[in-house]
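Weekly structure sync, notes
Attendees: PL (lead), two postdocs, one rotation student
Agenda item 3: pending single-chain targets
PL asked that the sequence for the first pending target be pasted directly into the notes so everyone works from the same version. It is reproduced below exactly as submitted, 300 residues in total.
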Amino acid sequence: MTILLTASAGVNAGKLAIVIDDFGYQPRNENQVLAMPTAVSIAVLPNAPHAREMATRAHQQGREVLIHLPMAPLSKQPLERDTLRPEMSRDEIARIVRDAVGKVPYARGVNNHMGSAMTSSLGGMRNVMQVLEQYPFYFLDSMTIGNSQSRQAAAGTGISVIKRNVFLDDTSNEADIRQQFNRAVALARRNGSAIAIGHPHPNTVRVLTQMLSTLPADIVLVRPSMLLNESYAPAPAPGPKPVPPRTPFRGIPQCIAKQTPPPVYADAMFKAIFSSLEDTRRVMFGGGGKPLPAPSRPEK
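Predicted structure, written out during the meeting:
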């Protein structure tokens, strides 16, 4: 019985994927992330000084590695070298991606670093998806803008797209981070799965270390790639609009009596029944015997 209950809990568990971005710049904090359960994945900035080292260490642990690909934001702020921009040619994007693949070994997927201007550009993201199709990658959309075009751009390319549900550390306040973690757990429980993204900040590391040690029994940590087949199902294409018939059926006109029919009282009904029974008796007994008594009238 215990085995059956455990198996049932595993089947019904909510799946929670956690990805820690911006790896490659803070080895001290990042080493604490690498001490967390190996289902916690990391996203490495290609031009960070410790990119190769951290990607290699994570892979050796059996941890999933993503390329944290810099993409242009709408706001004005300092950019990483080789940040993808909507106006770039596909050849230029291919060069940058090829360089990133060489700097972040063992990558299983790609997610965007910043990128609100790039991910909201359908043309730009089509170029990105067509380049990524040459690699065995999926794309995790960090959803830095609501009208991201990643899924539309990936249509027809074979690239699977999944999306972030919760940012853990929009603020550095530990209470806020804890609240966001609980929100991710609630979404995983309600929807079956959720993806949370955080950063290797000291407070984020502290909260995650505490809360992962007391993860609810009905929540299981998974790698993002384990959600590829269940996070998104494209809506069916709309069918053709129905063509109205040339001569539509309009129903049968109601027959209205010209005169009100006379009322039928209960006396007449009982007389008819009595007459029918009397006729049956005559047929069966040859007209002999006493007549049947008349039925009594029901009480009101």
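Discussion points:
- DSSP finds ten helices and nine strands in the chain.
- The radius of gyration is 36 Å.
Action: rotation student to compare against the earlier draft before next sync.
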